[in-house]
């Protein structure tokens, strides 16, 4: 019976017009049914309207789909000259670095607190090129997006601090060059990166016009 009432609301439904009006104007229908069936009829109408208000068209919200096709972000010559550039790739802000003959692309906002990585300096730590976030100086490897930190064994005060990895924190994207053009392909790795938080939802500041 519920299905019947729900079908009545679909625009293509050939159902009886008075019933459609009745569902759209529940008080009217309740009055009609009450005349014929008494209080039990009114109860059925109330329950039906509650059901319809909960889920009228069976729609289920689709999760955000990720676009992963390569996007041209600029000319090779220009990026080599400037050493870095920013781009919006499928609605995601990224920074592209050209460092020591290699390209690297990553989410533009730092995984720690959303700092602007395109304004950071590149330095080597433990022999690994890293972008140093200008806000709180976190170090992120260009090649893998790992967060590096220095650790010391508290039980051995004489030991020198050594560089360790927190694991992959910043999402790294793929850069390819074709015929003088530089392309970025967004990472489709299923793991969750901390930087995702600042690359999506409310923190995503720049939106693609497409
Ligand atoms: S926001 Fe980058 S280190 Fe804090």
From TrEMBL:
CDD domains for this protein: Rieske
InterPro entries per the UniProt record, alphabetical: Rieske_2Fe-2S, Rieske_2Fe-2S_sf, Sol_Rieske_ferrdox_dom
Record Pfam families: Rieske_4
Keywords (A to Z) from UniProt: 2Fe-2S, Acetylation, Iron, Iron-sulfur, Metal-binding, Phosphoprotein, Repeat
UniProt feature coiled coil, ranges: none
Cofactor: [2Fe-2S] cluster
GO molecular function: 2 iron, 2 sulfur cluster binding; metal ion binding
Annotated Gene3D superfamilies: Rieske [2Fe-2S] iron-sulphur domain (2.102.10.10)
Keyword Cytoplasm: no
PROSITE patterns: RIESKE (PS51296)
Superkingdom of this protein's organism: Eukaryota
Residues in Rieske domain copies: 70-184
Identification of the protein by name: Rieske domain-containing protein
Organism: Microcebus murinus (Gray mouse lemur)
């Amino acid at each position: 019976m519920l299905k019947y009432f729900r079908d009545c609301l679909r625009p293509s439904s050939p159902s009886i017009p008075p019933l459609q009006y009745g569902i759209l104007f529940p008080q009217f229908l309740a009055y009609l049914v009450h005349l014929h069936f008494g209080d039990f009829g009114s109860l059925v109408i109330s329950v039906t309207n509650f059901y319809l208000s909960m889920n009228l068209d069976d729609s289920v919200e689709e999760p955000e789909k990720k676009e992963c096709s390569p996007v041209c972000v600029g000319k090779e010559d220009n990026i080599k000259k400037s050493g870095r550039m920013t781009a919006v790739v499928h609605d995601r802000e990224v920074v592209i670095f050209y460092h020591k003959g290699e390209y690297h692309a990553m989410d533009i906002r730092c995984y720690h607190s959303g700092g602007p990585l395109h304004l950071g300096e590149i330095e080597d730590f433990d022999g690994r090129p890293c972008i140093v976030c200008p806000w709180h100086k976190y170090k992120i490897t260009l090649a893998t997006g790992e967060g590096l930190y220095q650790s010391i064994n508290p039980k051995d005060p004489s030991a020198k601090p050594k560089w360790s990895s927190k694991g992959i924190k910043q999402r790294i994207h793929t850069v390819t060059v074709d015929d003088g053009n530089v392309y970025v392909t967004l990472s489709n790795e299923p793991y969750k990166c901390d930087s995702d938080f600042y690359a999506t939802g409310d923190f995503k500041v720049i939106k693609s016009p497409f």
